[in-house]
From TrEMBL, chains A, B:
Protein name: Enoyl reductase (ER) domain-containing protein
Residue runs in coiled coils: none
CDD domains: PGDH (cd05288)
Residues annotated as domain Oxidoreductase N-terminal: 9-113
Domain of life: Bacteria
C-alpha cells in the first residue's frame, strides 16, 4: 500500500535488536490520519532521512537521546508538506524540515520546524549536505578538528554525506584529505568526483599499509565516524597534538556486546597521552550554538553554488522500503546520502 | 659506596624491561667526575625525583620524548648544588632544578636550569608540589578539566603528588573531590588530611559500587593518570560534556603487550560520543605556555602559605636505592611524593 489520503502508515519499533536489526525489528502499522487542533498543523511526509545514528535509538541505553519505545514510531528527520495549518507561520503547500519520524502523516506544533517555503529547490538536500550531516561535518571539522593548511585529515565513510563533506571542506581549507571507503567504486568516486587526495579501500587485505602510505606526514585530524579497525589503523599514525572529533562509531553500532580482545584501551589511551591528542565527542545540535548554523548555511550555500562542493544522493522509493534501506546503510551498502521518497 | 668527591656514580639502563622492570633493568656504573669547560658548571645531585613517567622512558617506543639509550644514564629531574661554575648566572653553593638524571655529578650549560638560590627552603618541593607534578595537576585540571562549582572531580593515585594536588585544587574551586587510592591508610589520609569529600580503595572487591555511590551526581571531570580498571569504572558514570585531562596511564606502564579482552575500545569511544566527552592528553611542558607557569607558582605559593594545600613527601636515602624506589612507586607502594636524597 503506497502513501494515500485515507490512512497513516507508521513504521514502529517491534523489538530491540541484539546485534544487527532484522525483519523482526521494525513493523508497519496503519492508523487513522490525525486531525490538527488549535495551534497545530498536519504534515505529509515527502522525504525521510536515513542515518546511522538511528541504530542507537533502537537500544535502551544511556545516551544523548531518549530511545524509541517498543511500539513507538521510529525517529527521523523528514521533509514534509503542510496539508492543513492552524499556525500563522505555516501555510498549506509549504514544505518543512521536521523530526516527525517514519510515518506518512504527523501533527506538529511548529516548534523546531524549519519552513522551506512552497516550492523549495532540492528539498531533500535539507536532510543531507544542507542539513544535519553537512552541519555535523562542518562544525566537527572546523571547530574541533581545526585543520591547518598542509595538515592531513582522514575520514572514513568518505562517500557518505558526512565523510564526503568533511574531506571537501578540508580541501577548501588547504589540508590534505585522505578518505576511507568500502570498495573500489566508492574510492574512485571519492578521489575523482569529490577531489580527495587519496581514498583507501578498507576491504583490501593490506588496508593498514595502504593507509600508512597515503599519510606520509602522519595524521593531524581524524574525523571519527566509524570506530573499529579504521580507528585502530589510524592510532599509530597520529601526529603530536592531533585532533579527533567523534560524531559516530558506526562499525560498532550492531555489536551485541563488547568484542573479543585484545583490549585496545591501552593503545587508545596511551596514544592520546603520548601524542597529546584531543578527542571530543559531539552531538551536533547539543554541542554547537545556533549561531554557527547560520555560518554553516552561508558557507555551504556558497560552496554549492560555486561548484566547490559535490553532493551525491541515493533515493529509495516507498516508506515500506525504509527498514531495508537503513540496514543496508549500516552494512556500508549505501552510496552517498540515502533518503526515502515516501 | 655513598656519594663522594672522587667518583661519579651513574645509574644506567642495562636492558629494556618486558613488563615490570627488575634487578636486570638498571645498573650502577662508576666514572670520573667531569670537569666543566667554558660556559659550563658542575652540579652535585642533592635530591632525585622519582616519577611514573620514567617507566615509559625505558621503552623504545614512539613517544613524546626520546627513550633512554641502553647504557645511558636514566632521565630524571634533580635538585643539585653548583660546585664549580663558569656561568655568570650560577655561583658555587647555588641550588638548581635541573634535568641531569640519575647520577652524582653532571655538567650543565645552564639551559633550562632554574636557580633556586644558595639556601632554598624545602628545596625538594621543587620536584613535587612546586614543580612538575604540581604544575601537571594545576594546568591539567584548570585548563582542560575546568571544574565548575558543585561539579564532581575524580582522580586516582589520590595520595600521590599529582592526585593530591588535583583534589585539593578542585576543592579550592568549589567542586566535589573524590579520590581513588590503594588501601585504607591512603584513603584515610586523602579524606582527613587532604580534605577530599571521599576516597575509594581500588583494592576493595566492591570498588565499582563504592565509586558509584561516592558520585551520586555522576562525574564531570576525571583526571586520568592510571587507566585500567579505574578508567573502566569511571566511564559509565561520566556526565554529558565531561572532561578528561590525560597525564598518565600508570597502571598500564608495565604491560608487555595488549591485555586480554574484551576489547574496551567500543566502550571508551561510545562513551566519548554519547556523553560528548572531551579527552585530552597533555605533556606538561609541551602543552602549556610558559606564561601559565608563573600563574601556577603564584597560586601554589599562596595556597601553601595559607595552609590551604597539604603536601606529603617520602624521602629515600641513597642513589643506590633509587631503582627499588621507582619500582615500588610503579606498584603503588609509595605514599606522597617519593624523592631520593642522593
Amino acid at each position: 500500500m503506497p502513501q494515500n489520503t485515507q490512512t497513516n502508515r507508521q513504521i514502529v519499533l517491534a523489538q530491540r535488536p541484539k546485534g544487527a536489526p532484522d525483519a523482526n525489528t521494525l513493523r508497519m502499522d496503519t492508523t487513522a490520519i490525525p486531525s490538527p487542533g488549535p495551534g497545530q498543523m498536519l504534515l505529509r511526509t515527502v522525504f525521510l532521512s536515513l542515518d546511522p545514528y538511528m541504530r542507537g535509538r533502537m537500544n535502551d541505553a544511556k545516551s544523548y537521546a531518549t530511545p524509541v519505545a517498543i511500539g513507538g514510531v521510529m525517529t527521523g528527520q523528514v521533509v514534509a508538506e503542510v496539508m492543513v495549518s492552524n499556525l500563522d507561520a505555516f501555510a498549506p503547500g509549504d514544505h518543512v524540515l521536521a523530526g516527525s519520524g517514519w510515518q506518512d502523516y504527523a501533527l506538529s506544533d511548529g516548534v523546531e520546524v524549519l519552513n522551506l517555503g512552497p516550492a523549495p529547490a532540492r528539498a531533500s538536500w535539507s536532510l543531507g549536505v544542507m542539513g544535519m550531516p553537512g552541519y555535523t561535518a562542518y562544525a566537527g571539522l572546523l571547530k574541533i578538528g581545526a585543520p591547518k593548511v598542509g595538515e592531513t585529515v582522514v575520514v572514513a565513510a568518505a562517500s557518505g554525506p558526512v565523510g564526503a563533506t568533511v574531506g571537501q571542506i578540508a580541501k577548501l581549507k588547504g589540508a590534505r584529505a585522505v578518505g576511507i571507503a568500502g570498495g573500489g567504486a566508492k574510492c574512485k568516486h571519492v578521489v575523482e568526483v569529490l577531489g580527495f587526495d587519496a581514498c583507501i579501500d578498507h576491504t583490501a587485505p593490506d588496508f593498514v599499509d595502504q593507509l600508512r602510505a597515503a599519510c606520509p606526514a602522519g595524521i593531524d585530524v581524524y574525523f571519527e565516524n566509524v570506530g573499529g579497525k579504521v580507528l585502530y589503523a589510524v592510532l599509530p599514525l597520529l601526529n603530536a597534538f592531533a585532533r579527533m572529533p567523534v560524531c559516530g562509531v558506526a562499525s560498532w553500532y550492531n555489536l551485541p556486546g563488547l568484542p573479543d580482545g585484545p583490549d585496545m584501551g591501552p593503545a587508545i589511551m596511551g596514544t592520546i597521552l603520548r601524542m597529546k591528542v584531543k578527542v571530543q565527542g559531539f552531538i551536533i545540535f547539543d554541542s554547537f550554538a545556533r549561531s554557527l548554523y547560520a555560518e554553516f548555511v552561508r558557507d555551504m550555500t556558497g560552496w554549492l553554488e560555486a561548484g566547490q562542493m559535490q553532493y551525491t544522493e541515493e533515493v529509495i522509493d516507498g516508506l515500506e522500503n525504509a527498514p531495508d534501506g537503513l540496514y543496508g546503510l549500516l552494512e556500508g551498502r549505501s552510496f552517498g546520502k540515502r533518503v526515502v521518497r515516501v
